[in-house]
Amino acid sequence: MAAMIRHFRSSSSNSIAQISRSLSTTTASETVKSQNYHRNPIPTSIEPKGKTVQWVFLGCPGVGKGTYASRLSTLLRVPHIATGDLVRDELKSAGPLSKQLAEIVNQGKLVSDEIILNLLSKRLETGEAKGEAGFILDGFPRTVRQAEILTEVTDIDLVVNLKLPERVLVEKCLGRRICSECGKNFNVASIDIAGENGAPRISMAPLNPPSQCISKLITRADDTEDIVKERLKIYWDKSQPVEDFYRSQGKLLAFDLPGGIPESWPKLLEVLNLDEQEYKLSAAA
């Protein structure tokens, strides 16, 4: 982890563009194809018991990376590091980057590699000082160049790519709410979309706040329909190649969310070969 931090610092202070590595030199494992969860082969490197978990969560904005990464973080007892949260924390800090970040985020654009790497290096350094082992990254890497940098300094065991239809993603983003007092996230959208072209029906109940939070709900400034669609377009144009990068290494697990948390969580644990009850008992022991 220390080497990773030093590399990130060097990448940020120097030109990140100088750090590159040809994909053709990567030793590719058996390709993991993007299929539905019940037909998707599992990378053989999934062995969370007794080893450090170093996982990445990919997916479009609003797909639920934070929700599922956070749940797995709690279950496996490793830190959940979301670059989106790092950006929002910096925005609240009124630090030197806050004004620049506000302009970028409010326009629905991607934050530069240099800024993300600076924020991430600070977070990893703090975690190392606390004795953290392993991580689940959420929102990084977003580009092949970032994935190459990550590969240079640490081994990623597994990359989980969460998938939902675009229409569902837009509705989810527009329904997101945050309690201005406690900081918890909720979603008021009630989604029920009929299946098309052989795809199953997708139904997601709202994640409503408790009574004490209702009057304190706020909407993120970038959660408007135009900005959400722009973010999705940027994702497909610039971030989707990251899937191919990890697929070529046999580390990509594509997971089509079948519905909301009650439907999707047990299915995700199933494909990850995780027993929730077993881990809870282990934690209590």
From TrEMBL:
<dbReference type="GO" id="GO:0005524">
    <property type="term" value="F:ATP binding"/>
</dbReference>
<dbReference type="InterPro" id="IPR006259">
    <property type="entry name" value="Adenyl_kin_sub"/>
</dbReference>
<keyword id="KW-0418">Kinase</keyword>
<keyword id="KW-0547">Nucleotide-binding</keyword>
<dbReference type="InterPro" id="IPR027417">
    <property type="entry name" value="P-loop_NTPase"/>
</dbReference>
<dbReference type="GO" id="GO:0004017">
    <property type="term" value="F:AMP kinase activity"/>
</dbReference>
<protein>
    <recommendedName>
        <fullName>adenylate kinase</fullName>
        <ecNumber>2.7.4.3</ecNumber>
    </recommendedName>
</protein>
<dbReference type="InterPro" id="IPR000850">
    <property type="entry name" value="Adenylat/UMP-CMP_kin"/>
</dbReference>
<dbReference type="InterPro" id="IPR033690">
    <property type="entry name" value="Adenylat_kinase_CS"/>
</dbReference>
<comment type="similarity">
    <text>Belongs to the adenylate kinase family.</text>
</comment>
<keyword id="KW-0808">Transferase</keyword>
<comment type="subunit">
    <text>Monomer.</text>
</comment>
<dbReference type="Pfam" id="PF00406">
    <property type="entry name" value="ADK"/>
</dbReference>
